């Protein structure tokens, strides 16, 4: 997993408790949560307190799939402000293209273990 700006406590929590928005890889659809405090995905979940303690109010998760539908990874973007944040679909598309290029120019390696099991 690669990240920027997430605290060790945040990472430990989500290593132990799969994020509720982990359905994105299984469905192939983005999960866009505009406000964690009003989202049914976070209602009654320990993840809500962790998100708020980290200062996050919104999360957008995008499954990154190659042209054959194989899952390359996930792009999850955390925001301090609630709401939808336009333009992130383009960022997910660019990340997918970059991963596809890296994958096609590097030697094959086994897929990493799932870090975000579907709940």
UniProtKB/TrEMBL annotation:
Domain GAF: 21-80
Pfam families: GAF (PF01590)
Protein name, per record: GAF domain-containing protein
Organism for this UniProt entry: Actinoplanes flavus
Taxonomic lineage from the root: Bacteria, Bacillati, Actinomycetota, Actinomycetes, Micromonosporales
